[in-house]
Predict the 3D structure of the following.
Amino acid sequence: MGSAPEAAPRSSTHRNPLVRWLDERFGWEDLLAPLRHKTVPVHKLSYWYFLGGITLFLFIIQVLTGILLLLYYRASANEAFESVQYIMTQVQFGWLVRSIHSWSANLMIFTAFAHMFSVLFLRAYTKPRELTWLTGMVLLFLALGFGFSGYLLPWNTLAFFATKVGTEIPGQIPVIGKPLLIFLRGGEEVTGATLTRFFGFHVALLPGITTLLIAAHILLIQRLGMSVPPSQEAAWKALPPSKREMPFFPNFFARELMAWYIALGVLGLLAALYPWELGSKADPFVPAPAGIRPEWYFVFMFQTLKLIPAKVGPIDGELLGILGFGVVGLIWVLLPFLGGDRYGRRQVFIRGLGVFALAYMLGMTVYGYLAK
Amino acid sequence: MQVLLGGGLLASAVSFLYPVWRYLVPPVATDLGGDSVVAAKVGELKANSGKIFRFGSRPGLLVRTADGEYRAMSAICTHLNCTVQYRSDVREVWCACHNGFYDLNGRNIAGPPPRPLESYAVHVNGDDVVVSRRRGT
Ligand code: HEM
Ligand code: FES
């Protein structure tokens, strides 16, 4: 084995001595170069480009506040509720940290959904961006997983029943349902064992996978550049001098930071003015309270399940609903592969599908809140 | 050579993953509940009311009808597992989760529940209201 040749010393002409020091050691400037060359198209729909970034920002908030909650939270059926109570009443600003974590979770799921629909309607998901869509969809499901697993952690009555119902749903799937249910619950029933598992998912498994996927998602976006919606593309083609873009760094980046700042303001306001409630401690020997409902982002599915009759022909209505949502979810993930050409006729159909899905989700959610 | 190497790698992968796979499945908990339980004391329940009692690790529902009769059934909704309650206003068993209704024999009569609640036998033994699983179910 020979020794590797000494790397030739780099020389850097950067003015800032710190940057020069870094640049001479590992080519810092080369790393930044792609960001400097990247441009962001400027047009009347450019605002939608911010949604993904805001979702990322809220995720970062979740990681930070989540780590803070970990200092006092205890994951066991006997202590979880009390430890959250302790955070809320004894720890200074504990109520605020928890409130921010809860509000930001909800806002993050909202922005992730909005982001998904915006890239669908701006047709940014078609070739060559199939993988960006795919990683994005998985990230959306992971966000829902975060929401679902986190919701149980305070171990209150609503969360207890939400988890019972929510884990029973995959349990209905033929063949794999039962083992899956036992795996999720850590047993036949929702108990302290479920809490421990959900805690592990929530603070270790999901953050790890999510971080990797975010990296992949962003790398793909960096490689592929920003997509321009077809209508805008056509307008620029017709009149090339009208085409406008801005450098990603620093121009777009500065605007993105402004957006984050506004998001932080909204988040702080909501968290401080409407502190998250804790409810009452879960008790397996108390009936489900009247008016029970899952978190708002599951309400459209919840309401659908409520409306399906017990039996549809020979099969349980329940199973039908679950399989239905499963199939729709799968189709959604595969949309870029089903839609064909970016300018093809099928895109019109997919847009219609998107409008229908959005209307269905909004309608069912509102219905779910109005129905008793 | 290729086969040997591949087979060896596969064997070690299996030997690592098998314990992990088994580890993921929790040990089966034994339900020490037994087949009967004292669900309430005589006189504890007014007519036209109900209470949840512990049947082993699971909840059961004891109802005293308007005529003063006792009925008992599993309190676990056959739809998606919520805990049901007795509604004195409609004199039926109700699940709040998705608005399911059962009659006082546990039969599913409205809403999404697909099957009846398991019904239990009740008898009064001195001061105790005793609930027991029916034979052969
Ligand atoms: C590394 C990241 C994260 C860590 C370490 C973490 C940690 C925690 C902890 C310890 C709790 C229990 C304390 C409490 O209930 O207030 C909790 C609750 C919760 N988490 Fe997270 N979390 C993380 C990310 C997320 C994300 C990304 C979401 C949502 C998309 C989320 C949603 C929730 C929700 C909804 C609750 C329940 C809040 C409540 O009602 O108290 N978390 N989290
Ligand atoms: S769980 Fe009882 S009606 Fe759905």
